[in-house]
Write a structure and sequence with these properties.
Blueprint lengths: L1 H17 L2 E8 L2 H12 L1 E4 L7 E8 L4 H5 L6 E2 L11 E2 L1 H13 L4 E4 L13 E3 L8 E7 L2 E8 L3 E5 L7 E3 H9 L4
Antiparallel strand pairs: 1-3, 1-4, 1-5, 2-3, 6-10, 7-8, 7-11, 8-9, 9-10
Amino acid sequence: MVDKELSVIQQEKSIDTSKEKWCVVRIPGPRYKMLSKTMEKEFEVRKRENSKDQMGYIFLKHNPDTLTEALRPYYGAFPLWDCANNKRPATLTESELELFTKILKDTDLNLIFLDHDLSFYAEGHVPVVCIDPPLEGMTGYIVRRNSNRNFVFSLSNVITISATNAHELRFLSQEDYIKEKSNGLI
């Protein structure tokens, strides 16, 4: 009987791990250092190394369906919600997470997760395409946030990101980008 129960528990764990994805977890303020160290012991975690803002994030590999319950013992840590479906935690693919961490390591851009869908920032703004690495080819909008010029873009229509210090990047309107790309200029 005990072996059978143990077998069922092991099957449930294997089901959970097969559905694991990189989830974005927000830890605001002074609790960031303490909670992120504690969570590293229990979960597979990647941290944001170059955080310039007050809101701390970690990337936690977990089943998104059970993430909220798993975070319950960690008071102050909560999932970032999917912009398209506010009932699910936001998840990143491995390649999106690599792009995110590469941008933070290789540039002085600060990436901030936003709470709204990209279409929320579209009103009154012209869609632009970034032509400089590491955001080359990303489509979004130039938006003023806190009197700074930010490039707001989306990853998989699940997470909206604001890149600060966007004054260092070059952009073309979406129409001009398509024309120049078809002419082989880009």
